[in-house]
Design goal:
heterodimer, A: 106 residues, 7-stranded mixed beta sheet, 4-stranded antiparallel beta sheet, globular, B: 117 residues, mainly beta, 0% helix
């Protein structure tokens, strides 16, 4: 099974900062990777698929990059609404799996 | 509007059964695969199961194989998760999600399952 590892687990930042969240896969997943944002008590929100394709309606300050085993979610200029937990997820064969999450706080 | 609504959560004793249902609206249900994803209290997300658009293929995470069964009814636009032989470690919020090239683009609000004696 493919294991997904995110770093860091917790990230403290300020409004206006540029932040990067890394996701590593235990084997090559090509670009079959998605990113989600989750706020407390809420369902996850779909942000990015195929490693870098932004879902419609997601602000352009979010971007994704990478291929193979290493991927990055970048938020170019943090806004107050961005403080949440972020998860990566591979979909390159079953079982699908998520990273453990990165909590982004102020 | 496009939405998924889950039903059926509750409190159940270990070893008992529970059936979750996910009702879809606002899109062509039969064109999409669907997934169940769960989140234990204070923990991360765990993919549980999926079913293809035509119901012919299903996959499960190892921890639920032989105990959980996913099914769909395209005429009712519903996806169900039958959960048998429940364990304490199955306690979680269960989300239904639509598969978009198997990323999960639409999520329900979740339904809570508590397995406790």
């Amino acid at each position: 099974d493919i294991q997904m590892t995110q770093s860091p687990s917790t990230l403290s930042a300020s409004v206006g900062d540029r932040v990067n969240i890394t996701c590593r896969a235990s084997e090559n997943i090509i670009r079959w990777l998605a990113w989600y944002q989750q706020k407390p008590g809420r369902a996850p929100k779909f942000l990015i698929h195929k490693a870098s394709i932004l879902e419609s309606g997601v602000p352009s300050r979010f971007s994704g990059s990478g291929s193979g085993t290493e991927f990055t979610l970048t938020i170019s200029s943090l806004q107050p609404d961005d403080f949440a937990t972020y998860y990566c997820q591979h979909y390159n064969g079953y079982p699908y799996s998520f990273g453990q999450g990165t909590k982004l706080d102020i | 509007q496009v939405q998924l609504v889950e039903y059926g959560g509750g409190v159940v004793q270990p070893g008992k059964s529970l059936r979750l249902s996910c009702e879809a609206s606002g899109f062509s249900f039969s064109l999409y695969g669907f997934h169940w994803v769960r989140q234990a209290p204070g923990k991360g997300l765990e993919w549980v199961a999926n079913i293809w658009f035509d119901g012919t293929t299903k996959h499960y995470v190892d921890s639920v194989k032989g105990r959980f069964t996913i099914s769909r009814d395209n005429s009712k636009q519903t996806v169900d998760l039958q959960m048998d032989s429940l364990r304490v470690e199955d306690t979680a919020v269960y989300y239904c999600a639509r598969g978009m090239e198997d990323a999960f683009d639409i999520w329900g609000q979740g339904t809570t399952v508590i397995v406790s004696s």
